């Protein structure tokens, strides 16, 4: 499906990012996955190797513009011009607004939202020249419905949606699509941080009666990255077991 | 080696999909050659690559014709 294409996936060492990287690679893409640590980057290289797939693990802190430039230059020169970008890297710094510190707000905006702007800009030149491209950013159901304790996270995730709609209008004439996947509650380290009661309470709110798997998200991303989704742009695809419907 | 003007003209023709004889020194990329804002950004990107030189955004805004592009490149890009 993606033979000959280069995909860049941020935050690929575990969870949803790992599932996306493996799914795209399994469908033929050469994938560069990034992680903030050396150990994470090595883990990525290793899981590609173990699966017998073509891919690379690289260190990248998405809040550092010069690291982004360096990485994209390396990918362009050594792997090929990426025509698929998956903005997946993200963190949480939950707190009630009354108690939220500026650092908690800033960390989320920088890592979860500004990174999407920077990464998209960095790969756009190559996509414009190629006259094709897929930019897919991972947002969250929280960006649609809100969540107590996550004003920062929800603002960043909703911000990704507005950003993507605008960029979709800018680059549509060049055959580049820009979309968002909004996962519900997915079984990853991020949601494992919740208590058992919280998880049970959450599950009872989900019509499909389970947390999602990282692979559920990866399949949606692979679809949006494919030729089959050529006429879809500026959209947010919710993958949440029916938890929120809009 | 072709002249700067020929090289710039070739890029304009390719990027904007116009005929070579339409690209006169004073023809406006936007008003006469039908470029939109995205086309002009791409045009400047292509010029940067061809002449291996950075064109700052403030300067790029002033490059609206072949003549202006050639003048800018002669002054700033060609060693």
Automatic annotation (TrEMBL), chain A:
Keywords: Fatty acid biosynthesis, Fatty acid metabolism, Lipid biosynthesis, Lipid metabolism, NADP, Oxidoreductase. InterPro entries: 3oxo_ACP_reduc, KR_dom, NAD(P)-bd_dom_sf, Sc_DH/Rdtase_CS, SDR, SDR_fam. The active site is at 153 (proton acceptor). It catalyses: a (3R)-hydroxyacyl-[ACP] + NADP(+) = a 3-oxoacyl-[ACP] + NADPH + H(+). The keyword NADP applies. GO terms for biological process: fatty acid elongation. Pathway: Lipid metabolism; fatty acid biosynthesis. Residues 5-184 form the Ketoreductase domain. NADP(+) binds at residues 11-14, 36, 88, 153-157, 186. GO terms for molecular function: 3-oxoacyl-[acyl-carrier-protein] reductase (NADPH) activity; NAD binding. Its EC number is 1.1.1.100. It holds the Pfam family adh_short_C2. Gene3D superfamilies: NAD(P)-binding Rossmann-like Domain. Catalyzes the NADPH-dependent reduction of beta-ketoacyl-ACP substrates to beta-hydroxyacyl-ACP products, the first reductive step in the elongation cycle of fatty acid biosynthesis. Belongs to the short-chain dehydrogenases/reductases (SDR) family. Homotetramer. This is 3-oxoacyl-[acyl-carrier-protein] reductase.
From TrEMBL, chain B:
GO terms for cellular component: cytosol; membrane. The modification O-(pantetheine 4'-phosphoryl)serine is found at residue 37. One of its GO terms (biological process) is lipid A biosynthetic process. This is Acyl carrier protein. SUPFAM superfamilies: ACP-like. It is found in: Cytoplasm. InterPro entries: ACP, ACP-like_sf, PKS_PP-bd, PP-bd_ACP, Ppantetheine_attach_site. It comes from the Bacteria. It comes from Sulfurivirga caldicuralii. The gene is acpP. GO terms for molecular function: acyl binding; acyl carrier activity; phosphopantetheine binding. The keyword Lipid metabolism applies. Carrier of the growing fatty acid chain in fatty acid biosynthesis. 4'-phosphopantetheine is transferred from CoA to a specific serine of apo-ACP by acpS. 4'-phosphopantetheine is transferred from CoA to a specific serine of apo-ACP by AcpS. This modification is essential for activity because fatty acids are bound in thioester linkage to the sulfhydryl of the prosthetic group. It holds the Pfam family PP-binding.
């Amino acid at each position: 499906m993606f033979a000959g294409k280069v995909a860049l996936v941020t935050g690929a060492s575990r969870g949803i990012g790992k599932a996306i990287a493996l799914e795209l690679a399994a469908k033929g893409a050469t994938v560069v996955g990034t992680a903030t640590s050396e150990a994470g980057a090595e883990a990525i290289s290793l899981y590609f190797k173990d699966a017998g797939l073509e891919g690379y693990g690289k260190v990248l802190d998405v809040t550092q513009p010069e690291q982004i430039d360096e990485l994209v230059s390396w990918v362009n020169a050594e792997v090929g011009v990426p025509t698929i970008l998956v903005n997946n890297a993200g963190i949480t710094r939950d707190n009630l607004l009354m108690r939220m510190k500026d650092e908690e707000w800033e960390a989320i905006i920088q890592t979860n939202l500004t990174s999407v702007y920077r990464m998209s800009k960095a790969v756009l030149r190559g996509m414009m020249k190629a006259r094709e491209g897929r930019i897919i950013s991972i947002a969250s159901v929280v960006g649609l419905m809100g969540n107590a304790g996550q004003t920062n996270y929800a603002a960043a995730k909703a911000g990704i949606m507005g950003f993507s709609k605008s960029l979709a209008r800018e680059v549509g004439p060049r055959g580049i699509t820009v979309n968002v996947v909004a996962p519900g509650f997915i079984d990853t380290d991020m949601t494992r941080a919740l208590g058992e009661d919280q998880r049970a309470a959450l599950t009872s709110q989900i019509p499909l009666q389970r947390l999602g798997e990282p692979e559920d998200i990866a399949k949606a991303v692979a679809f949006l990255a494919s030729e089959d989704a050529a006429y879809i742009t500026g959209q947010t695809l919710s993958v949440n077991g029916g938890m929120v419907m809009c | 080696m072709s002249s700067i003007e020929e090289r710039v003209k070739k890029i304009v023709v390719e990027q904007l999909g116009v005929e070579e004889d339409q690209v006169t020194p004073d023809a406006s990329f936007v008003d006469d050659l039908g470029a939109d804002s995205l086309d002009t950004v791409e045009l400047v990107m292509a010029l940067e690559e061809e002449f291996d030189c950075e064109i700052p955004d403030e300067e790029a805004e002033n490059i609206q014709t072949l003549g202006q592009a050639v003048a800018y490149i002669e002054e700033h890009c060609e060693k």
